[in-house]
Amino acid sequence: MPPFLHAAYLILVETKRPMSADEIMALALERGLVHTRGSTPSKSLAAQLYVDIRDNGAQSRFIQVGRGANFALNDGRIETQLDAIEESPPQLPLISRKQPQSVAVPQRQDYHAALDREVGAIQSFLQGRSDQRPSDEKLCDWVQLCYTLELYTAARDLFRLINPTDVHPWYFERTKKLARICTIRADSHA
Description:
With 190 residues, the protein is mostly helical. The chain is built from eight helices and three strands; from the N terminus they run αβααββααααα. It has two domains: 3-86; 108-189. A three-stranded antiparallel β-sheet has the order 1-3-2, sandwiched between helices. The longest helix is centred in the C-terminal third of the chain and has 21 residues, at 169-189.
C-alpha cells in the first residue's frame, strides 16, 4: 500500500470517524507518518483514495461518505459513519508518539504478493496476453508504479497507450512528467 494510503488507514483507525483528506493529511504530517515535499499533499492523498475506491470497489479499505469529500474505513458501518458526518466532529485526542498504538499492519508478504500481481498484470497487458484493456486512469497508475519500481521501459510503453482525453488533465500531466523521466532513464540504460 502506498505511504499516503497507509497513513490514511492508520489515522482513520485511530480517529474512528470520517475525515476529509485535508484532516487526514494534517494529522499524518503532524505524527510523522508521511514525509513529502509536494505543495498539495492532501490533494495527492484524495486522488489516491479516489483511485483506490474506484479500482477496488467493495474490497477497498476506504469508502467515501457524506456530501463532501470525506473518507472512512470500509468496515460495513456506512450508516453509522454517515450519521457521524452530519454531527459536529469531535475533538481529536492528542496522542504522544511514544504511546504504543495497536494497529493491525499488513504483513510484508501481503505487500509483495500484491506487487507481484500488479507487475504480472502489467507484463501480461504489454505482451498482449490480457483479454481486457485497462482504463486510461489505470494505465496512469501503472506508469507511476513502474516509475517507483524502476521499470522504466514498461512505464514508457504504457504511457504511449494512454488517451489524454480519457484522463483528468491534472493526472495526465503528472503521468506525462513521470513518463518523460522513465523514457530518459530507459534510453540511457539501453
